[in-house]
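User: Please predict the structure of the protein below. I'd like the answer in structure-token form so I can feed it into my own downstream comparison script.

Assistant: Understood. Taking the following sequence of 353 residues as input:
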Amino acid sequence: MLKLRIGDVWAHTLGETGIVGNVEMKHAYATSGSGLLYLKWSMDLPRNYWSTNFREGTKVEAYRGDVKLGTATMTEVDRTNWNFTADGLFRRAETFYPDDSNTQTAMTNANLRGLGWNGIGDLPAGIFPVAEVNSQTSIAEHLTKYCRENSLRWGLTVEDVPFVEAEPYLYDPATKPQWAITPGIPLMPTTDGSYVSRVRVTYSGGVAVSNTPVDANITPDGGREVSLSSRTSIGSEAQAQANEILRRLTLRYTFTEGLTIGPGDLSTPGGTPIDNWAASMLVLGKMGVHYGAASTRNFSAVGETVQWVAGSTTYKPADDSLVLASVDAEERTLGSVLASFAGIGNPADRGLR
């Protein structure tokens, strides 16, 4: 049973009936922030009831037994229907700003001002440029920009400790599946709208062309070329930028929706069952394998085996339902990837063909 702790008390001890229902818990894994994204729930309370625990900013923690699944802060209370919403704790960085270019100093000061994170974790130096300290750029925006430029992800652990880590790379042989989906479940809808097969970066002094990844899993047909200009890069930087854009947008299908997972459909690659409630810990941010996926692009009755990285999990304990979505569904649009490369042209400079 999923339990919520609001402030210093358990939610089911508030009011007269102790009924907590309609719980929905979503976790995200993204360059824009990772961890518990939001909690939603309702309670059976009298219309005139009130508790100081319902104040905006109150800490809300989700547990399954003794296992903590994340922390959020109260953001919305509907006193008419007693519906509640709490945003993930990592999102508080959207309204806090660095006051020092030293990462440890800036984050320590933000925590003293009420950010609420558990220390500074392994956050690297170089996140807060000196010129942008005390500007209108939030800590979250700084972290997101840093991670997009370096193919990293940032977020909070279940113990509220911040982290920055490399995202799994599907086409690296060293990346092993950590979870699996039962054969026969339909593949999510796909689009080829972000396919890129070649990237050209024009800089002062020449043109850098991306190196095409060599991998048997990449379908050679389809894709588009991207041509853009960089006013600041030298040759080595332009080459690195071209390669990184291709790495993110190289030929593979982008999933447009999540996948509904029923009880018993999720396991380790070796067949050990993974409970749906535990997906945020054992599946999120990890590469998995979808065995025998029924697909509209494969007319074989057997189906195909597809690998993808879980970018979000949405769990509803009432019916033990889980929706898994790929990281591709959020971060790998052509526009978002190009926009993440600071110093490279503007939309008028870009040619897409």
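That's the full token string. The radius of gyration is 22 Å.
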